Amino acid sequence: MKTTLTTLFLSIAFLLPGRASAAVEHNLAIINTEIVLKGYWRTAVEDKRMKNAMEDVQKRVVIEDKKQTDRLTELKNKQKVLQNPNLNQAIRARHLEQFEAKKRAFEQNGTTLNNWKAAQQKDLSEKSRMAIEKIREEIQAVISAQAKKKGYTLVIESKALLYSSADLDITTQVLAQLNINDPGNVAPKKPTPKK
Which pTM value belongs to this model? Predict the structure, then answer.
């Protein structure tokens, strides 16, 4: 059976020489998308934007955590008042009622705060994911345009190869195309001198 399959395969290969050679005649390029992603100016802009958003959330978390700590301190103070043996029964009942109300508020605020923190983290993660996805789409569009322009039939990620010739690498060309509109590379206009 093995011999039959081998013979059949070789027969087909000899009968279709045009197809076998067509597979070999691909115009090939390679690219390191990790380098492109890191070198693309929009990646740095998005990284900075996300870092600022994370810092803003962190500042708000610190403020809200401080408020919750203050609530806990107030709750502990109410508990100390309740431990005073000199309180009459009416005052103790009023303080106990206030303590229970403060305790419920503290617990509810804690739950709300934890839910808010989780929602903020999820929102930041989603925004980051969407930004990276958009950047990857932009990179893919430039890779496709470069491939069509240069007549490449295949563009392969360089990390997937064991060896390739350096002249097949289009990483720098793609990165240069992506960074054409980098606002950091545009020279500022010189003011015209007044007469």
Answer: 0.68
